[in-house]
Amino acid sequence: MIVLNKEVGEFLRRDKYANVRGADFNLFGHFNDFVRLTKSWENMEPDSYYGQSEAGMRYRRYSDFEYNPVTRDLKQLEHRAYVQSKANNSYVGGMVRHFQDFSDEIISSPVMRSLIDTDFEVYKNVLPPELHDEIWQCQIHQIRIEIKPGKQLEITPEGIHCDGYPFSGVHFWGRNNVEGAESRLYDTENQEHLASTTYQEILDTTYFLDRDMRHYVTPARNTHSHDMAYRQILAISFSRPGTAFDIVR
Asked: According to CATH, what is the number of the domain 2-239?
């Protein structure tokens, strides 16, 4: 079970984001489950829409779920494409992208389920109380970037952007031989730089109200002349279709 030991509600309400260190989380038991979940980044299908093949590759899983905050039940929905507008994603906006779905083994991981529950508890800090017990949709992206020796690539080739979710939690899950990859947040109107952090330890995390700001990750370079580099994240978002908390595409 994962427990967040830092109070982030005040930061999220005031700044619309909160950066959390991996050391602010505790894992109680389930160490073997944690290891198994970590290994799941090593067998994902390529993201064929990413480009930059001369420098590296992106691998990705993506699925939508129905989440009940009261019972903590998580129901995987039918496979669906991931579509963003050109306004939100100038790189692949308007393209119908299909990614590998999550397997039952990964999504039933006690570590994964605990992290989803933890993220919704964080989100409740900025939600009206009457929405705390409602059914939500949960969108999960699992991403691994691999970089060829001596090469550099764009982590977010779309540039400074918004994915349109009401709330997102981006959890770092490791890197090797990587230089750069600084995560940045910006003001929506003027793209004023608000905050930066460079993830180093597993579970270094940024919680943010995605629709209310923009984000970007600076280019990453492989510092090794012979070995591949990698960087891994897990992004968990919540939305309520057909309401004021829907995804803005």
From this structure: 2.60.120.620
Distance CA 137, CA 246 (A): 9
β pairing state of 152-153 and 183-187? unpaired
Provide CB contacts within 8 A for 226, sequence distance 6+: 149
Report the distance separating Cα 6 and Cα 188, nearest Å.
27
Tell me the one-letter amino acid at 165.
Answer: Y
C-alpha 144/C-alpha 237 separation (Å) is 18
Q: Are 158 and 237 in contact (CB under 8 A)?
A: no
Strand-pair partners of 167? 238
pLDDT tens string 99-119: 999 999 999 999 999 999 999
Over residues 67-87, the pLDDT tens digits come to: 999 999 999 999 988 776 666
Question: Strand runs (DSSP E) across 102-166, as ranges?
Answer: 136-147, 152-153
Q: What is the pTM of this model?
A: 0.95
Residue 93 predicted with pLDDT over 70: no
Residues 195, 78: Cα–Cα separation, whole Å: 36
User: What does the alpha-carbon distance between residue 153 and residue 146 come to, in Å, rounded to a whole number?
Assistant: 9
Please, what is the average pLDDT of the chain?
Answer: 94
Q: Where are the domains of the chain?
A: 2-239
Degrees to nearest 5, angle at CA 172 with 209 and 78: 70
| Biggest CA pair distance of the chain | 55
pLDDT of residue 97: 80
Residue whose C-alpha is closest to residue 223's, from 140, 152, 133, 167: 152
For residue range 208-221, list pLDDT tens digits in order. 999 999 999 999 99
